[in-house]
Amino acid sequence: MSCKQLYSALGLILIATLSTQSGCVGLSNMNTGPFGIPIPISPYFQDSEEVQFHIHERYARVPIMGPLTRGAQNHAAIDPPSDDEVIHALERARPIRGGIPLLHEKQRNRVRIVKCKIADYVDEPRFVPLIGFAQLHHAHYKCSVYFEERTINGWPVPYTLDDKECVEVIYIDHNHFHMVGDPDVGDCGPY
After folding, report:
1. Does 38 sit behind a cis peptide bond, omega within 30 degrees of 0 on the bond before it?
2. Measured in Å, how far apart are the chain's first and last C-alpha atoms?
3. Residue 82 within any structural domain of the chain
4. Residue 152 belongs to some domain of the structure
5. Is 58 left (phi over 0), alpha (psi -120 to 50) or beta?
6. Is residue 32 part of a domain?
7. CA 162, CA 110: separation in Å to the nearest integer?
8. Chain centroid to CA 13: how far?
9. How many domains does the chain have?
10. Is residue 118 part of a domain?
11. How far is CA 138 from CA 31, 120, 133, 172, in A?
């Protein structure tokens, strides 16, 4: 191949690359490949990102509640964990996602969840950065999940395994802060 043909080939590649970087094809806010053509993302990765955001938005934050009143028994914990939260915790502990259809799959059927509060206590007041003086309220729950697990294997010899009496125990902690004193005045109160 002569130098003239090599330079003309490189010039054509350069022109093709630059032409895709202008107009509607080469958008700068998209995940684009080397020639400005969008690269498709697998639904698996998109789904995992959505699940992580769902967990962060609903369960990974610690709420800040009003102050506790002296002498009153209003320090009961906030709501017990929802069924959705228990299933997400079970998926993190013992995942069944990502099976290969018609080759190897796992299913959980007839799910029943039993929740028991095992501890509920409030810490002493202390200074927490970005909040001020606050008390941390702990609530610990034991969640027993009863289900039937079905394992379907399709290759090399198709068979199905049914486990009718599966039990998993998940411990979930719900923590939230209670402000100490009057939050409007900035008083730390008698605590």
Report:
1. no
2. 87
3. yes
4. yes
5. alpha
6. no
7. 12
8. 44
9. 1
10. yes
11. 43, 6, 16, 11
* Of 101, 139, 108, nearest in space to 122 by CA: 139
Angle CA(149)–CA(55)–CA(175) in degrees, nearest 5? 105
- Cα gap 149→164, rounded to integer Å: 7
Domain limits at 115?
A: 78-191
Residue of 21, 30, 82, 24 lying closest to 54 (CA atoms)? 82
Where in the chain does DSSP place strands (E)?
64-65, 104-122, 126-128, 132-153, 159-179
Residues 33-79 pLDDT 10s = 666 677 777 888 888 889 899 989 988 888 888 888 776 565 677 78
| CA gap 185, 65 in Å, rounded | 16
Residue 120 CB partners (closer than 8 Å, separation 6+): 75, 76, 77, 138, 139, 140
For residues 90 and 106, give the distance between their C-alpha atoms in angstroms, rounded to a whole number. Answer: 14
Query: In which band, very low, low, confident or very high, does the pLDDT at 26 lie, cut at 50, 70 and 90?
Result: very low
pTM of the model: 0.68
Tokens of 160: 């199905």
Quick count: other Cβ atoms within 10 Å of Cβ 26?
A: 17
What tokens appear for 125 in the block? 């007041």
